[in-house]
Write a structure and sequence with these properties.
The complex is a heterodimer of chains A (about 220) and B (about 500).
Chain A: H1 3-14, H2 31-34, H3 40-53, E1 57-61, H4 64-78, E2 83-85, H5 97-100, E3 105-107, E4 121-124, E5 128-130, E6 135-139, H6 147-150, E7 154-160, E8 164-165, H7 168-171, E9 182-186, E10 191-195, E11 198-201, E12 208-214
Parallel strand pairs in A: 1-12, 2-3, 2-4, 4-7, 5-8, 7-12
Antiparallel strand pairs in A: 5-6, 6-9, 10-11
Chain B: H1 6-14, H2 17-41, H3 44-60, H4 62-75, E1 79-83, H5 86-99, E2 104-107, H6 111-115, H7 118-124, E3 128-131, H8 134-141, H9 158-167, H10 177-194, E4 197-200, E5 204-206, E6 211-216, H11 220-226, E7 230-236, E8 240-241, H12 244-258, E9 266-270, E10 284-290, H13 314-318, H14 322-325, H15 336-346, H16 364-368, H17 375-388, H18 394-408, H19 410-423, E11 428-429, E12 432-433, H20 441-444, E13 449-450, H21 457-470, H22 475-491
Parallel strand pairs in B: 1-10, 2-3, 2-4, 4-7, 5-8, 7-10
Antiparallel strand pairs in B: 5-6, 6-9, 11-12, 12-13
Helix pairs in contact in B: 3-12, 9-10, 15-17, 18-19
Classes of the chains: A alpha/beta (about 220), B alpha/beta (about 500).
Chain lengths: ~220, ~500
């Protein structure tokens, strides 16, 4: 159907004139929700707690050395044949290149996108995290491929404590802001209850999600 | 679609104890989880109020927001198709498939795609269609339709699923959940990689940015949307929210109401296809916007609110009728209370006219609804509409004509009660009526009808009024007095 005819039918049914103004309304979450504020320490501890409730696992790392030890420990246990990593300078501040040197690493933007189907672990940063719900937000661009966190069995996200917001609304795009082609919010591993209500993990997306939160200022 | 009435379909559902058990177990579980999560979250009524206000505002200005949404989808590089009915929507998608010479289409769960019978249309063109939500994959292999809008395969046992997966090529599968989901993951992964087109529904379309938002737990919608070259979104025209700020409200209302989860595992927001320099994501994005009877509800004070629905399924889980008969008995794409309202509205005429009667009008659906749609009122109004259109059964019409005659005059009423009291001695046994005869049958075939009291309230009233007028008794004694009087009457 022609677009204007389609919209005209709606307008006619609603008894509205073409170009009639839109009445004001109470937009967004209730004020008791948007007015809350958690201290930065509470944001971090709430995030870690809720992320775990969602079936993920998050650690707060006091410094880069600790973060490296955690990551190394994880990779040692997982022993992945191939690791996918966001490309360019996206993870530069976490200085993990040395640590990854003994693994087969595919970098987004360098290795062909299709090859990421065979990665077992994906390491990414994130655009923001949300304390309320234990959520990671990934925004796609040339260096931040979606496949890196979508396809592997294990997803490891590296983030700074200051990236953790209290609520979802703080992380969502503001009016007029340029919106990335993909915003992906992840709260724990892939789950399904479609077989006799029995929870199963990892039916499509990653079966395990880890977050390493670097406390304090970036180096 | 439906050959029989809901009464016959319900009857066969009621003879399937496994189905009943599964439906009740699932709905109980979802209902309990919802109660827990909303209590922990707090101020649920304030959230419901905000949800209703946003949906009401959006639908009341739908022309404006839909135009804004379409403009912004195009500004982000996507294509928009407007479809007046199911046929047009299916044709738009078939055309895309032909143009792309598609052989394989992967799909994530979409009720609208069921509404337009998309799979059949694509398969008629020789395109293979694979459902990728685990539950939908199972029922597609079984050649069935969903029985619940959130958990479509609640009627399948793990043994049945093992058989279906074995037929689909699974080797040495056990009935272990892990083994079964492992097979689905491996099988569907290869299909995601080789599919030409991915079709998804749309939970919300954000008008201010032209963003399509999908909520899933499995992550299949992300594979479907990102891996094939072309992503086709099929959405009902009412699925709009004005802004991202409003999405925050529904990011709480939807998963909490649907499954009692505090948050959905994956919320994915797609704004146009992949951009310059990006190496994954669909290269081409099409959004098909469907009317199919929805615009008819606009401007109708009785039914416009049905377009506020966010398809969470909470009304199914609390409905005493759905909990007994399950989704298939409704014979329509949308089951439960929302289906009993929406289906006859989208498909007027005799075919689904019986669905609004599949309700006890208890109002549990309204209480469960995160946007407070008065479904129980709508069910009554639909019944009224069917009667006005002459769709009611002849016997029912006659009965209500009689009712009107009798209740219009006190004298007629008294006379009919007196004769009823005399007549009932023929059928009354031990203070109740079980005889399944005449107009009594509708009641007595499933329960016992009480006999008429020896003295009606109207007959007792002059005496009661006398007592009240004397009136110097304290109220407590008065309330005790009434049952005592009643007991005395019954003993006569």
């Amino acid at each position: 159907m022609e677009e204007q005819a389609f919209l005209a039918r709606i307008r006619e049914r609603l008894g509205r004139q073409d170009g009639a103004p839109v009445a004001p309304y109470r937009r967004g979450a209730p004020e008791f929700w948007t007015g809350r504020s958690l201290s930065s320490a509470d944001r971090v501890s709430t995030f870690v707690e809720r992320f775990a409730q969602q079936g993920g696992q998050a650690w707060v790392c006091p410094d880069l050395t600790d973060l490296h030890n955690r990551l190394e420990g994880l990779l040692r246990d997982l022993a992945p044949p191939a690791i996918g990593v966001w490309g360019g300078d996206t993870l530069k501040e976490f200085q993990i290149d040395g640590l990854l040197a003994r693994f087969t690493v595919l970098r987004w933007g360098e290795a062909p996108a299709k090859s990421f189907a065979d990665t077992h672990v994906g390491i990414t940063g994130c655009a923001a995290a949300i304390a309320d719900t234990g959520t990671l937000m990934m925004a796609a661009d040339a260096w931040r491929g979606r496949s890196v966190h979508l396809l592997p069995t294990v997803h490891i996200a590296l983030l700074h404590a200051r990236q953790i917001k209290t609520r979802l609304g703080e992380a969502l795009p503001k009016p007029g802001e340029r919106v990335p082609s993909s915003l992906h919010f992840v709260s724990g591993p892939s789950r399904s209850s479609d077989i006799e209500n029995d929870l199963s993990i990892g039916v499509h997306g990653p079966a395990a999600v880890y977050a390493l939160v670097l406390a304090g200022r970036a180096t | 679609m439906s050959q029989t009435g809901i009464r016959e379909r319900a009857k066969s559902a009621l003879q399937d104890p496994l189905l009943q058990q599964a439906v009740q177990f699932t709905t109980d579980r979802l209902r309990t989880r919802k109660a827990n999560v909303t209590e922990t979250f707090g101020r649920w009524q304030a959230w419901r109020d905000r949800g209703r206000d946003i949906r009401a505002h959006t639908i009341a200005h739908l022309d404006f927001y839909l135009q804004q949404f379409a403009d912004n989808v195009r500004a982000a590089g996507g294509h928009v198709h407007f479809a007046a009915d199911a046929e047009e929507a299916a044709q738009a998608i078939v055309d895309i498939a032909k143009k792309r010479r598609a052989k394989l289409v992967v799909k994530s769960k979409s009720m609208v795609s069921e509404e337009i019978h998309l799979n059949r249309h694509l398969e008629d063109e020789g395109v293979q269609v694979v459902e990728t939500d685990l539950g939908e994959y199972i029922i597609q292999l079984a050649g069935e339709t969903p029985s619940h809008i959130i958990i479509p395969s609640i009627h399948k046992t793990r043994e049945q699923i093992r058989e279906l997966f074995t037929k689909a090529g699974g080797e040495n599968l056990t009935t272990d959940t892990k083994a079964l989901t492992g097979f689905a993951r491996r099988t569907l992964r290869t299909l995601f990689q080789s599919a030409d087109i991915g079709v998804t529904g749309c939970n919300f379309g954000i008008a201010e940015s032209g963003t399509v938002v999908l909520f899933t737990n499995e992550g299949n919608a992300d594979m479907v949307a990102n891996l094939p070259r072309t992503h086709v979104v099929i959405m009902g025209m009412e699925r709009i929210l004005p802004s991202f700020a409003d999405l925050e409200v529904f990011s709480h209302l939807l998963p909490k109401s649907a499954t009692g989860q505090n948050v959905i595992t994956y919320m994915s927001c797609f704004t146009g296809p992949r951009r310059d320099g990006e190496a994954d994501g669909a290269r081409e994005l099409h959004v098909v916007i469907l009317d199919n009877g929805r615009s008819r509800q606009l401007g109708d004070a009785d039914f416009q609110d049905i377009l506020h629905c966010i398809r969470c399924g909470a009304c199914l889980n609390v409905c005493p009728v759905y909990r007994q008969i399950g989704g298939h008995a409704y014979g329509s794409v949308y089951p439960g209370p929302v289906g009993a309202v929406l289906t006859p509205l989208l498909n007027p005429g005799p075919e689904y006219a019986d669905l609004p009667y599949a309700s006890s009008l208890c109002g549990a659906c309204f209480e469960a609804c995160p946007v407070q749609i008065p479904l129980h009122d709508m069910l009554v109004k639909l019944r009224r509409r069917h009667v006005a259109q002459g769709l009611a059964k002849r016997g029912e019409r006659a009965a209500f004509r009689g009712f009107r005659l009798v209740f219009a005059r006190a004298g007629r009423y008294r006379a009919i009660i007196r004769s009823g009291r005399l007549g009932q001695v023929l059928v009354a046994r031990h203070g109740g009526i079980d005889a399944r005869i005449g107009p009594l049958r509708g009641w007595t075939q499933t329960r016992r009808a009480p006999v008429l009291a020896k003295r009606s309230f109207r007959e007792s009233w002059p005496g009661l009024r006398q007592e009240l007028r004397q009136g110097n008794r304290p109220p407590a004694a008065g309330t005790e007095g009434a049952p005592a009087h009643e007991t005395a009457v019954n003993k006569e």
